[in-house]
Amino acid sequence: MKKAITTNYNSPLRAHQKEQTREMILAAVGTILSAGSTDTVTFAEVARVAGITMRTIFRHFPTREELLSAFWKWQLEQTGGQTILGPSSIESLLDKIKEFFESLDAEE
């Protein structure tokens, strides 16, 4: 009996494409939310806006709750809010708060 040969090959290109797809999905959620509420965020609508299949979305986010949770975290990172969570000093915190509010003003 022959044994199957398995390899643990990690493709940098595949990892990059996976991250790009994830970004497309999260950006599509943002587009949908800018025109409506969280009720309008469905896998079918995200797939339509992102131009991908629902199956692709499920590969990245098995549930709607995971999708929305990832979106809020991603949005916070996009606006610089994540840096507020771990400042090294009070001065750094104050600077980051100012930057954060300025970034919110730039985002509708």
Word description of this protein:
The protein contains five helices and no strands. With 108 residues, the protein is mainly alpha-helical. It has helices spanning 12-35, 43-50, 54-60, 64-78, 90-106. Helix 1 (12-35) packs across helix 2 (43-50) and helix 2 (43-50) packs across helix 3 (54-60). It is 66% helix and 0% strand. The protein is flat.
Quote the distance from N terminus to C terminus. 63 Å
Largest sheet: none
Shape category: flat
Helical stretch count? Answer: 5
Low-pLDDT runs of 5+ residues are none
| H/E series | HHHHH
The assembly state of the depicted protein chains is: single chain
For the secondary structure, the number of strands is: 0
- Mean pLDDT equals 84
Rg: 18 Å
Report the structural category.
mainly alpha
What is the fold's blueprint, element by element?
Elements: H1 12-35, H2 43-50, H3 54-60, H4 64-78, H5 90-106
Structural features:
5 helices; mainly alpha; single chain; 108 residues; flat
